[in-house]
Structure prediction request, 310 residues.
Amino acid sequence: MDIKHLLVVIDPTREQQQPALDRAASLLERFPAARLTLMLCDYIPALDGGMLFDTAGLEKARASLLQHHHEYLEKLAAPLRAKGTEVAVTAVWGKRSDRHILREVSTCKPDLVLKATRHHNVLKRLLLTTADWQLIRHCEVPLWLVKHGDKPINRLCASVDPLHSADKPAALDHKLIAIATSLGKTMDATLDLVHCYTPLPRTMVFDASVIADYEGYARDVKQHHATAFSQLLARSASESAQSHLLEGDPEEALPDFLEKEKVDLLIMGAVSRSRLDSALIGHTAERLLDSVSCDVLVIKPDGFVDPSKP
Prediction:
């Protein structure tokens, strides 16, 4: 994975710690020639009078807020520039931060977007309205959602789906493994490759012959997935990686595995095919975001185009 340009989303609600910037700084140690764009998007309802009630005073207040944010970004950029890193800054006003971030991605075309993430409440999980989920669906470049920016990356885990049960293109698994392998070498981190599979629960099996030999059915399912997993690994340059076949849905099996193995970064693929899919289908990456304690790197297939674009 070659990183030449990082877009770092700065959290306007944090004055001190900026996990995404901390992670970017650690990546600069591995990619010293990379340049940064620091972006901050803020929206305060009290400063939005709407079309009918907007006043010169509110406009001036918004301009003052953006000036304050611009000065804050310059302060963050100063120590990086002192080390020789090229840093651009941009502060914008906007109600939908995800749309502004995606617009910036389209304009400056970074190799990687870094954004801090935090736990989302149940209502927002049901409505799928947070910026993190929208970026998972629509961001055309790799998206690194940071939970612990000051924690070193010593162990990576890539979650693959060789049978493509999540309707992911086959090439995406190879891309995930290639990126994970490259990052592992660059960051001197160990790599795990994981595939989760789920046989039908006994209570959901209605075929009498299968019910009679459910253990045999479960063994056949496991063998089927193990064979597909082995074939994927044989076609990938992943000799140094440890492979793990886990029984259970990813959102159930992966968090326990990541916690037990002390994984620092989970690498996953995500596909959003249309606006209707985005409205009705929650991706595994979205469902896992609140369940794992490590950073999450979301990768899209080659040629992916944001389905929300006009």
